[in-house]
Each structure stands twice: as C-alpha cells, then as structure tokens.
Amino acid sequence: MDKAQVASMLEEIASLLALKADSNVFEQRAYENAARALNSLDGDLTQLVEQKKLKGTPGLGATLIKRVEEAVQEGHIAILNELRANTPAVKLEMMRIPGVGPKKINAMYDELHPKSIADLEQACKDDKVAKIPGFGKKTQEKILQGIAFLQQHADRFRFDVAFTEAERIRAALATLPEIVRLEVAGSLRRRRETVKDIDMVVSVSDGAGQDEREKIMTFFTSQPGILSITGKGLTKSSVVLASGIAMDLRVVSDSQFPSTLHHFTGSREHHIPLRRRAQNMGMTINDYGLFKISDGSEELIPCHEESDIYAALNLEYIAPELREDTGEIEAAAQHKLPKLVEQSDMRGILHAHSTYSDGQRTIREMVDACIERGYSYLGLSDHSKAAAYAGGLSEDDVRRQWEEIDRLNAELKGRFRILKGIECDILKDGTLDFENDLLAGFDFVIVSIHSNFNLTPEEQTRRMLRAIANPYTSIIAHPTGRLLLGRAGYTLDMEAVVDAAAREGVCIEINAHPSRLDLDWRLVRKGREKGLKVPIGPDAHTTEGLDDVFYGIGIARKGWLSAEDVPNTLEADELLRFFQEQRERRLKQSSVAH
C-alpha cells in the first residue's frame, strides 16, 4: 500500500461516515485531514510505518496512525470494511457518480428510495430528482451525465492503482526460488491509462512437477490484501483484491513463457493481423508457441524471448506499449519503428509547483528532490493570479519568486538550474492571465484551462486556439481537463488544437499525473506525425509527485514518442535555447501577421 492508496481509503471512510444517519462531522473531518496529511508526507509509507515515524505528524492522531498501520500491514482497514458492509449497496454505487457527494446521496435515497443506479436514472428521466428540495433541473441533468459516465467506465481502474497492486504481488512472488521468470501482462503491461484487471505470468523449469506449481499458487492466493479467491489450480489461479481488481496468475513451463506472455499481453486487435501474417507465412501462433505448418502437422519453432516470435515473422520487436493495431506491424515489417523514449532519457522536470502557490514544498526542497533523482533542472510553474483557489501569484509575487530563483541559481553554481516558468490561466475569452510584458520575463510559459468548463465545444475550441496564438505560449497543459474515471473533461475539437499547436510550434504536454495522463496517447501519436513537441510534465505539488514522470513515460511510449520528440530530454542550455527560439520565431510571425 502506498500513500495515495491509503489516503484514498481514509477519504472513503470520511465519505461513508457522512452517509450515516448519526454521522459525526468531527470524525469525518479527522479522516479527511489525515488523508491530506498522508499525501503531503515525504518518504516511503511502508518504511515510515516500520520505523514508527508517523507519530507527531500534524493531522495524524494515535487512532489514525493505527488505521494507516493496519492498511500497510494488513492490506485493508477493518472499519472501512465494516462501513462498506453496513452501507446500502445503492449508496455505495451512487458514491461513484462524478460530482455527487454524501449530502445529495442521502437526499435522493431518503426521497426516492432507489434500489439501483438504474432506478435513479429512471427517476431523473421522470423528472423526480429535480423536484427534491435544493436540486433542480441543472443538478438532475448533471447526475444523468454522471450516470452515463459511470456506465461507460464501469469496472475499470486507473493504471497507477492497478500497477501498485501488481508490483506488490510481483515483488512477493519474485522471492520464490521455484520461479524462473515473472512478468505482468495484459493492458497493464501495454500501459493503458485504465485497466479492467491484472494478468501475471510466471514460469517454472521445464522439469518442474506439481509440488512447485502448488507452492506458487498457495503463496499467491494467501497474499495480504486478497478479498476472495475465485479459482485455484496448478496452471491458473484467480483472486479479487481488496481494491476490487480481479487478478489472474498463470504458471507455465519456461519454454512456453514467451508465447504465453505474448498472448496474454495482447491486445486482441494486435494479435488478429499478427496471426494473419503468420498464416500467410505458413505458421500458426497461440499461447503455447509459434508453429510451422508442414504436411498437415505443426512443428514448434523455439522462441526463448518475445523478440524471437517477431523475428520469426520477419518483424522488428514491437514493444508492448505499441501493440494496439495502430500501424505497428506495418512499421515493424519495414524496420521503421521509433526508438521509444525511456526514463533514462529525461534530463529535467517541467511543470512543478512550490509553496508560492498550491505546492506543498519550498523551491529549495523541490530542487533537492530533483537532484536526488538525477535531474539537472527544474522548470517551476506556479499558478497565475486567476487561480485564487490555488494561491495564484500576483505580479509582485512573480517578481519575488524570480529573485529567489536567481539567488538559488547563484548558490547552485551551474550544478543545477531552476527555470522561471508559470502555469498561466487561459481566461474565458482565450486571453492569458498575465500581460505579455510580464510573460516575456519567464523562460517558458505553460497555459491551461481551470475554469468555465461548460462553454460550448465551439467556444472552448476558439478559447484554446486564441491561447495558442499568443506568441508567449510555450506549452499547453492538461489540454482536455479530464480526470480519469472522474470526469470526461471539457469538450473541444482536439484535432484542431493539435493541428494549430503543431503549426504554431507550441508544445502540448503529457500531464503525467495518473489521474490525468492528458494529452491522450492516441492524440500524442497524431501530434508526433505533425511534428508536435510533447514535454512530459508531472504537475508535481510534492517532492514525491516528481516520480509521476514514470506514468507520463508510458503514455509517451504508447504515442510512439522518441527522446527527440520530448523537449525535457534536452539539457538545460539546449532547452532554454529551444524555448527562446520558439518565442522569437513566433514573435516574428506575429509581427509579420500584424
């Protein structure tokens, strides 16, 4: 259990307490405060628990510390399980509707007595929800939209939630001497932004017997954090984790491992044309291996690695992230696959916040954390004044921050560089929150939408295009505003936005926060084909948030990006030159246009 998972459990406890008839508002707030306190902590939570270092943390009293310890050590919190069991099932379902909180849930439950989400949906269609005191037509319509969103994303989990669960169990299984090879498969291995379940494949030596397989399966099904066992055998076992994610473990002999891993990595869409290619070459491929068909019989083609499967089909190795049937097989046949960007290519951070706005760490603390992670620069980008809810900076605040950055850069003497950036709000009409004469003082300017989400698609698109046209705009952040499994984001013509950004030489980031992963990987691919540059920004508000770059790398790879497509793979001087040339070129174009 990591901090985000445990904090989410504490937040859920607070919500479930609020649903109770005799709810205690102070108890709810205690859990909410504990969740916030946990998210702001530095360091590995497991280590902090083991070393008893949570005592004295503001917001974490003795009882709350026990809850956190229970989550880390047992994989669950008993009071949370109890609250879930004692809360009507329909209320638990209603909690998943975006934008619907405990107060509204209780009001709808008490007035309408729905037995299911379908009942609630029908009540909205019958205009009954609008008539509940304090609701109205607009609220009813939003609930209907939320139900539609919920139905569209039913039974899916964010990548980071599933990845954390998979890594915990993978690390445990890796301690077993009987296991030869071990890999996560499925959509998780392909780095999809949300997943339905977890697939894992392990191998044992070809001569291994029943005892070895049975030991592995018993170990797997007895791991902490398993809610139920839905199947147990010598080749496959299935469980449901406490998070609700279903997980399958398959055990195969080592000679079968590459084919089984390849098969269960998917995608189905990738496998269909791959099998067709194999058939055209007189071969057949399945989860047991690659076979040459001759005189009606099948001869196994030995493959020790997945790359051997592709090589036998006269293809370059296709990385798991690309296996979505978006042209990867054709590119592999022509040896035209890109060398995908890797974590080791990243030289610095772009898009991070400090205590000047809504970040939880000082500039110096963020710098030290970057140095510790091997980065050579930090592109600071606190919020502009319109984001008052996030402590947005006034013009005077900006100048004060610049002075601190200058002092710190002088102290660092070239060992590390802090770049002067801003996350500047795009206002309703598409103008930027600061005047151009102030924007000119920044090394780079990130622009983003944080308000007026309900404009028409045409208005929202015009708004974004006007922001792109400003010559001081360097990067567009989280361009659709989506929150995975939380909200769809505002509606705009992203094809037109990508086209305009590529044409104007403006970057669009992959916001690497796992709740966003925005720009979507499908649009990343389209942008790359048009020459769009795509920085990876963690949108870090804590030092640990810097590590979200990992999630952004996955989306960049799914979007076929190489290091040269990602500006923050450049060294600091090269990046500053990139931004300077970008601005000068656009200012020149702007003056010619006028």
TrEMBL record:
> What is its subcellular localisation?
Cytoplasm
Domain (DNA-directed DNA polymerase X) ranges: 1-324
One Pfam match: PHP
Tell me which InterPro entries the record gives.
DNA-dir_DNA_pol_X, DNA_pol_lamdba_lyase_dom_sf, DNA_Pol_thumb_sf, DNA_pol_X_beta-like, HHH_MUS81, Hlx-hairpin-Hlx_DNA-bd_motif, NT_sf, PHP_dom
Q: What is catalyzed by this enzyme?
A: DNA(n) + a 2'-deoxyribonucleoside 5'-triphosphate = DNA(n+1) + diphosphate; 2'-deoxyribonucleotide-(2'-deoxyribose 5'-phosphate)-2'-deoxyribonucleotide-DNA = a 3'-end 2'-deoxyribonucleotide-(2,3-dehydro-2,3-deoxyribose 5'-phosphate)-DNA + a 5'-end 5'-phospho-2'-deoxyribonucleoside-DNA + H(+); a 5'-end 2'-deoxyribose-2'-deoxyribonucleotide-DNA = (2E,4S)-4-hydroxypenten-2-al-5-phosphate + a 5'-end 5'-phospho-2'-deoxyribonucleoside-DNA + H(+)
One Gene Ontology cellular component: cytosol
Give the E.C. number(s): 2.7.7.7, 4.2.99.18
Give the keywords, sorted.
Answer: DNA damage, DNA repair, DNA replication, DNA synthesis, DNA-directed DNA polymerase, Exonuclease, Hydrolase, Methylation, Nuclease, Nucleotidyltransferase, Sodium, Transferase, Ubl conjugation
The GO terms this record gives for MF are: class I DNA-(apurinic or apyrimidinic site) endonuclease activity; DNA binding; DNA-directed DNA polymerase activity; exonuclease activity; phosphoric ester hydrolase activity; zinc ion binding
The prosthetic group or cofactor this protein requires is: Mg(2+)
Residues in domain Polymerase/histidinol phosphatase N-terminal? 348-428
Q: Which GO terms describe its biological process?
A: DNA repair
- The residue ranges of the Helix-hairpin-helix DNA-binding motif class domain are 52-71, 92-111, 127-146
| Protein role | Repair polymerase that plays a key role in base-excision repair. During this process, the damaged base is excised by specific DNA glycosylases, the DNA backbone is nicked at the abasic site by an apurinic/apyrimidic (AP) endonuclease, and POLB removes 5'-deoxyribose-phosphate from the preincised AP site acting as a 5'-deoxyribose-phosphate lyase (5'-dRP lyase); through its DNA polymerase activity, it adds one nucleotide to the 3' end of the arising single-nucleotide gap.
Protein name, per record: DNA polymerase beta
Question: What is the source species?
Answer: Ktedonospora formicarum
